[in-house]
């Protein structure tokens, strides 16, 4: 139980399969939060959208005596159920009427597929010593119940705390990773950051945790329910999410799209073709009974979250997750900031990005951010490592030539005449230099670039080419470079 197998990878993200007592959970996966005390939306409604996993609160179930034995039978949901422990209530109210052992024993009794110990959330604590207390207490509690958790039928989750204090977060992650009985690790307390649009810090937190734990352990993000952030978290290695955002937003007449949220009162027509949006107009929803309007908005919101999960999986399978992040980045300035922060970890993303993928897809290169994608990073590394065969280099500026360059008649003629006396390169935006003799190799001829390039792309590409040439060659001859986009310097 709890075996995790990675099937597809792109950047540091992956599609995986997690074995549970009620079937295989394909990740990235989303767990809609179900509050059994609220009746606005039913579990059957959630299933009808297409979800085979839900999360509900074990403390609420226990306190209200709702589930006594088998949670799947009593909730009439024969698929994957995760139970949270009541930590959110601690965050909101300061304490709950149960202790860690009681919550763990209760979850052993009702047998969810995935369970969580009763941790102490860091939340929005600004005092480092208080934050450290939440880390130490969570680690202590996890160790305290190791001897009683049922690992035969249940995947147990070890929360990771520390909040915005990255050193504490790293310590918490490293210690949690050592606990072999916990097959799932989970980053806590992101909600307060998302409420403030502090996505930069959230990116730092995810990277800190994911880079501090075993690659083979799946990572869950508590409260990660905004579609525009899901692919960024996945790209860094988050495997699953949960959130009540879909219903909380619905109660406030907020309509989720995959790029932002809208107020229902401000929408003239729905930009969506889900069953709700296909059947009703915004005005018709506004005129409905509040409970029914909330239910329908919640269903729509779930469709958007599920669409985002599926689109992210498609991007991973096609090897275009980086391009997808670039598209998403322009949905909001805070999301763009998150994208730029993620690029700080470009070397980490390259490390786990697969070198060999199934069906080759050409690269779409847009701006200076594209230079941080793994394929370009590897190309620059290759340029740094290759040893020159000659003291002279011939550089052909490639603006006018067809790809692959080695097959262009003009370039082929130069190669046939000169390859014995000089190393021959194509100068090209984004790549800097492309060695002609390997220019058919992926991705040196499988790419598209804009006709109009930014000054930063030109500068970075030119600087890379010139630094390589200066470091490796005594003489550089330029061909067709008078009106080139790049500024290559002869030697």
Topology of this structure?
Blueprint: E1 4-10, E2 13-20, E3 23-27, E4 29-34, H1 43-49, E5 53-57, H2 58-63, H3 71-75, E6 80-84, H4 87-93, H5 100-110, E7 114-116, H6 128-144, E8 155-160, H7 166-177, E9 182-187, H8 191-195, H9 199-210, E10 219-221, H10 230-236, E11 240-243, H11 245-251, E12 254-256, E13 261-263, H12 275-279, H13 282-286, H14 290-318, H15 321-329, H16 333-343, H17 346-352, E14 363-364, H18 374-385, E15 392-397, H19 409-418, E16 423-428, E17 432-435, E18 447-448, H20 455-472, E19 475-479
Parallel strand pairs: 4-5, 4-11, 5-6, 6-7, 7-8, 8-9, 9-10, 10-11, 14-18, 15-16, 15-19
Antiparallel strand pairs: 1-2, 2-3, 12-13, 16-17
Strand order of the largest sheet: 4-5-6-7-8-9-10-11
Cα end-to-end separation:
64 Å
Strand element count: 19
Annotated CATH homologous superfamily of the largest domain: Queuine tRNA-ribosyltransferase-like
Active site: 84
Function: Exchanges the guanine residue with 7-cyano-7-deazaguanine (preQ0) at position 15 in the dihydrouridine loop (D-loop) of archaeal tRNAs.
EC number: 2.4.2.48
Cofactor: Zn(2+)
Could you characterize what this model shows?
The radius of gyration is 26 Å and the shape is elongated. The longest helix has 29 residues, at 290-318. 46% of the residues are buried. It has 491 residues and is α/β, with parallel strands linked by helices. The chain has an eight-stranded parallel barrel with strand order 4-5-6-7-8-9-10-11, surrounded by five helices. A four-stranded mixed β-sheet has the order 17-16-15-19. Strands 1-2-3 form a three-stranded antiparallel β-sheet. The protein folds into two domains: 3-346, Queuine tRNA-ribosyltransferase-like (TIM Barrel, Alpha-Beta Barrel); 363-479, Rossmann fold. The protein has helices at residues 43-49, 58-63, 71-75, 87-93, 100-110, 128-144, 166-177, 191-195, 199-210, 230-236, 245-251, 275-279, 282-286, 290-318, 321-329, 333-343, 346-352, 374-385, 409-418, 455-472; strands at 4-10, 13-20, 23-27, 29-34, 53-57, 80-84, 114-116, 155-160, 182-187, 219-221, 240-243, 254-256, 261-263, 363-364, 392-397, 423-428, 432-435, 447-448, 475-479. The protein is built from 20 helices and 19 strands. A hairpin with a 3-residue loop joins strand 16 (423-428) and strand 17.
């Amino acid at each position: 139980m709890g075996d995790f197998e990675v099937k597809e990878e792109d950047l540091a993200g992956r599609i995986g399969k997690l074995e549970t007592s009620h079937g295989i959970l394909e990740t990235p996966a989303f767990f809609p939060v179900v509050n059994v005390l609220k009746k606005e939306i039913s579990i059957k409604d959630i299933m009808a959208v297409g979800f085979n996993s839900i999360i509900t609160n074990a403390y609420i179930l226990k306190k209200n005596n709702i589930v006594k034995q088998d949670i799947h039978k009593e909730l009439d949901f024969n698929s994957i159920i995760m139970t949270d422990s009541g930590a959110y209530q601690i965050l909101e109210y300061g304490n709950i009427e149960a202790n860690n052992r009681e919550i763990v024993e209760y979850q052993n009794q009702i047998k969810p597929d995935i369970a969580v110990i009763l941790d102490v959330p860091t939340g929005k604590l600004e005092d480092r010593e208080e934050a450290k207390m939440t880390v130490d207490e969570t680690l202590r509690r996890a160790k305290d119940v190791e001897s009683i958790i049922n690992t035969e039928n249940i995947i147990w989750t070890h929360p990771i705390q520390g909040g915005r204090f990255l050193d504490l977060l790293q310590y918490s992650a490293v210690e949690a990773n050592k606990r072999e009985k916990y097959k799932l690790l989970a980053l806590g307390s992101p909600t307060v950051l998302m409420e403030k649009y502090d996505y930069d810090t959230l990116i730092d937190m995810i990277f800190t945790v994911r880079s501090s734990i075993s690659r083979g352990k799946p990572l869950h993000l508590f409260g990660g329910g905004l579609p525009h952030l899901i692919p960024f978290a996945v790209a860094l290695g988050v495997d699953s999410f949960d959130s009540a955002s879909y219903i909380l937003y619905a109660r406030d007449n907020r309509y989720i799209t995959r790029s932002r949220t809208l107020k229902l009162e401000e929408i003239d027509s729905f930009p969506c073709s889900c069953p709700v949006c296909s059947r009703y107009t915004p005005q018709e929803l506004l005129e409905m009974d509040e409970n029914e309007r909330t239910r329908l908005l919640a269903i729509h919101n779930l469709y958007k979250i599920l669409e985002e999960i599926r689109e992210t999986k498609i991007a991973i399978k096609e090897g275009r997750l980086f391009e997808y992040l670039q598209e998403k980045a322009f949905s909001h300035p805070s999301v763009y900031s998150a994208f730029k922060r993620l690029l700080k970890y470009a070397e980490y993303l390259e490390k786990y990005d697969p070198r060999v993928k199934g069906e080759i897809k050409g690269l779409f290169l847009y701006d200076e951010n594209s230079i941080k994608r793994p394929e370009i990073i590897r190309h620059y590394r290759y340029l740094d490592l290759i040893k020159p065969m000659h003291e002279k280099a011939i550089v052909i500026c490639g603006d006018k030539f067809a790809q692959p360059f080695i097959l262009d008649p003009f370039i082929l003629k130069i190669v046939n005449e000169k390859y014995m006396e000089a190393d021959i390169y194509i100068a090209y935006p984004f790549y800097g230099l492309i060695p002609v003799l390997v220019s058919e190799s992926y991705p040196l001829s499988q790419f598209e670039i804009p006709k109009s390039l930014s000054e930063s792309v030109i500068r970075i590409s030119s600087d890379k080419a010139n630094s390589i040439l200066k470091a490796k060659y005594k003489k550089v001859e330029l061909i067709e470079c008078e009106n080139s986009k790049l500024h290559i310097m002869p030697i």
